[in-house]
Design a protein that fits this description.
Radius of gyration: 12 Å
Number of helices: 0
Number of strands: 7
Distance between the termini: 13 Å
Order of helices and strands: EEEEEEE
Shape: globular
Structural class: mainly beta
Helix content: under 10%
């Protein structure tokens, strides 16, 4: 799946996006990527858990856990 983002004003090189499965939060992310301070970008990643599972993506501030933005839950489907 492709995740696209637009950074908030004042983005830092160590702002990051974490991928969470279901209702997981905090340090229970599946994978992550630094944004490099980019104003916007895309990230190719995978969905987890098979058909019917959900994931979401959270934009976090400067190598910490301050949430700046979050996606809605995304459901995966078999193809």
């Amino acid at each position: 799946m492709t995740v696209s983002w637009t950074a908030p004003a004042g983005a830092a090189a160590k702002d990051w996006i974490a991928a969470y499965q279901g209702a997981d939060t905090g340090t229970a992310f599946k994978t992550w990527i630094y944004t490099g301070g980019a104003a916007k970008g895309e990230w190719e990643t995978t969905a987890w858990g098979g058909a019917g599972s959900t994931c979401r993506f959270i934009y976090l501030k400067d190598d910490g856990y301050q949430r700046m933005a979050a996606s809605s839950a995304i459901s995966s489907q078999a193809i």
